[in-house]
UniProtKB/TrEMBL annotation:
GO terms for cellular component: cytoplasm. Residues 36-371 form the Sulfatase N-terminal domain. The gene is betC_3. It comes from Lignipirellula cremea. PROSITE patterns: SULFATASE_1. Its cofactor is Ca(2+). Keywords: Calcium, Hydrolase, Metal-binding, Signal. It comes from the Bacteria. PANTHER family: IDURONATE 2-SULFATASE (PTHR45953). Belongs to the sulfatase family. This is Choline-sulfatase. GO terms for molecular function: choline-sulfatase activity; iduronate-2-sulfatase activity; metal ion binding. The lineage of its organism: Bacteria, Pseudomonadati, Planctomycetota, Planctomycetia, Pirellulales. InterPro entries: Alkaline_phosphatase_core_sf, IDS, Sulfatase_CS, Sulfatase_N. Its EC number is 3.1.6.6.
Length: 490
């Protein structure tokens, strides 16, 4: 849980802006039969490589970009955990990992004593009179039907998988990339878009909450050949990196972000696969953007177009060689920053908000925008004040947690990281957007560091660990703790 004075700010902001933001909702939104619908577009492992966020100069996301033009793009949005399960747990409960103890890939929601009997976002909306529908990956991927009144299934999950790996011969089957399959109809995200489009074409007696949970660009980075053709192999641009980028990082950071199960960056360089993997990620992003566009076009053609709030987000970012590492599982900007867009149903258009916000804020925001009562013990807070005025005062930083007591705090212009052993990083995003220069040892930044330290969570729940699956990030955390203890003894 965040510090007490920030909690007070959250409550005060909610109270002060509640009446002012009511025009955002359609007239009569407080009446159950007239509340706005909610369409959630969830994307797996999408970093800032979108046109509207400018994370890569070759990113092609015309549909995500047009949704941003229709609403508010939160350009400084961050996940609460840089890994799927705890990030999504935070989003659907409105609680931080440091509150629930859910830090790692396993276990899921029901293992935490804080969340096991708590209503998730779709369950709460169902109890409030909404018809809830979903398909694909939103909460955990498989077994999601229990959270929805109507569910279309995983619709293929991370598949299909070729008989032989295409690019990376070792490791997990999911760690692979290249043009596959030949037929787009075989892609799970195509099926998820089809399912969501069919639901939008149906008459609805109640307000609805509809989730399309897309799987790409999560590995395997497969997409049909035509999406690769958008990015000729000899024209792919690699992300900007520095060979000495890791030289000023604390040992705990290096231990915690060892990188498994992803291949090491050295492997990509040695086997000349860096370009091919970047190309596959760009192709996968372009493909999932196409699926998003199909659903948006169906909404625009439906009778629900004027009365539906649209939320698009990704669960965390993704490294593609930055800081000489790949995938997620870090507290650096490449792993924490995500797209977040809120549009539709009377929302202001063409807004960009640079205030630091989190996915944990989506649940309380949707409660306010649909006229439902707030949940008083949410760690997140409603973004309605920023929808009304993207430049409004916003004192709370965005918090991301990776393992017990290791936290990232992102303000409008600065990024602070404190690891469980007390080591720190500090980056000036105005001067150093790539986070190449750690300023934590700069004598001129000591007062800034002290301010960030005051904003760290006051509660750090013990980790809830799986009894059957350790997970790579658990092993990295245990290694970091062991090595930190050894350094302390010396």
């Amino acid at each position: 849980m965040l510090s007490q004075h920030l909690r007070c700010f959250s409550c005060l902001a909610l109270s002060l802006f509640f009446l002012a933001t009511q025009p955002v909702c359609p007239a009569g939104a407080a009446e159950p039969g007239k509340r706005p619908n909610v369409l959630i577009l969830s994307i797996d492992d999408l970093n800032d490589w979108t046109g509207c966020l400018g994370g890569h100069p070759q990113a092609r996301t015309p549909n995500i970009d047009r949704l941003a033009r229709r609403g508010t793009l939160f350009s400084n949005a961050h996940c609460q955990a840089p890994i799927c399960t705890p990030s999504r747990a935070s989003l659907v409960t409105g609680l931080l990992p440091s509150t629930t103890g859910l830090y790692f890939l396993q276990p899921g929601l029901t293992a935490s004593p804080v969340t096991k009997s708590r209503q998730t976002l779709p369950e709460h909306f169902a109890a409030a009179g909404y018809h809830t529908m979903g398909a694909g990956k939103f909460i955990k991927g498989n077994g999601e039907e229990k959270y929805f009144q109507q569910h279309g299934g995983a619709l293929g999950g991370f598949g299909p998988i070729p008989p032989q790996k295409l690019a990376y011969p070792d490791g997990l089957k999911l760690w692979d990339w290249g043009p596959f399959p030949a037929d787009e109809a075989d892609m799970p995200d195509t099926r998820i878009a089809d399912w969501a489009i069919a639901r939008l074409a149906e008459p609805q007696e109640k307000p609805f909450l509809l989730v399309a949970g897309f799987w790409r660009p999560h590995v395997p980075m497969f997409a049909p050949q035509k999406w690769f053709d958008l990015f000729p192999a000899d024209e792919v641009k690699l992300p900007e990196t520095r060979d000495d980028d890791r030289a000023d990082l604390p040992p705990y950071a290096l231990d915690l972000t060892i990188g498994l199960p992803a291949p090491r960056h050295e492997w990509f360089v040695e086997h000349e696969q860096w370009d091919d993997a970047v190309r596959a990620y760009l192709a996968s992003v372009a493909y999932v953007d196409h699926c998003v566009g199909r659903v948006l076009t169906a909404l625009e053609a439906s009778p629900h177009a004027e009365n539906t709030i649209v939320v698009l987000f990704s669960d965390h970012g993704w490294h593609l060689g930055e800081k000489q590492r790949w995938a997620k599982r870090s507290l650096w900007n490449d792993s924490t920053r995500v797209p977040l867009i809120i549009a539709g149903a009377g929302q202001p258009a063409a807004q960009v908000c640079g205030r630091p916000v989190g996915l944990v804020d989506i649940y309380p925001t949707l409660l306010q925008l649909t006229g439902l009562p707030p949940i008083t013990d949410h760690d997140g807070q409603s973004l309605a004040p920023l929808l009304a005025d993207p430049t409004a005062d916003w004192e709370r930083p965005a918090l991301t947690t990776f393992g017990p007591k290791s936290h990232s705090l992102r303000s409008t212009d600065w990024h602070y990281i404190r690891y469980a052993d007390g080591s720190e990083e500090l980056y000036d995003h105005q001067a150093d957007p790539h986070e190449w220069s750690n300023l934590a040892a700069d004598p001129g930044q000591q007062s800034r560091l002290a301010e960030f330290r005051e904003q760290l969570p006051t509660r750090n729940a013990d980790p809830v660990l799986s009894q059957t699956f350790t997970g790579w990030e658990v092993e990295a955390w245990q290694t970091a703790e062991k090595n930190a203890a050894a350094r302390k003894e010396k």
